[in-house]
Amino acid sequence: MAQRRPRKSAREVEARERVRARRAEHWERERQLEDLATDYEAAAQEIKDVTTEAEEKIAAYAARLRGEAETEKQKLRDRQAESVGQMLKLDGVRSVADRLGESVDTVRKVAARPDRAPEGGKPDHGLAAARSTGQEAAAGQPVTRPIPPANAAATASPGPATAGPAEHSAASA
Q1: CA 2 → CA 6, 9, 21, 163, distances in Å?
Q2: What is the pTM of this model?
């Protein structure tokens, strides 16, 4: 006996066609949504890449500007130290400090900066190489004495040395 296939009605055929059409529309819509989501994610990653690249460029530029600023500041500090050194050749530490509106310690630090080499590369044995006794002579010059060598520290006799004729006349009075 042969089995008979049930006959499909026209309604059933139309219903299946509508279901297939809706399913095709659904899958087309899903494909479009997936494509758009992929595009969104790719754009988000590109935003991160652009931001990272910009931050790296900004950091490099800022580092370069900081370096240039440090170089310029160092030149200006050297100029300050040179000016203070010249002023100290003409007047005392306290007078220079008062004139500049700085403390005596600040003026001494600027004048004796270790990273500043005097002209000609030779050490300056003027006021920067003398130790102040904390007193000033009548002319406003600090009363100084030479810094003894390290091995002569035990044999050196303590006592103020004269800074010049102004102190000598003040001491004899």
Answers
A1: 12, 21, 34, 137
A2: 0.44
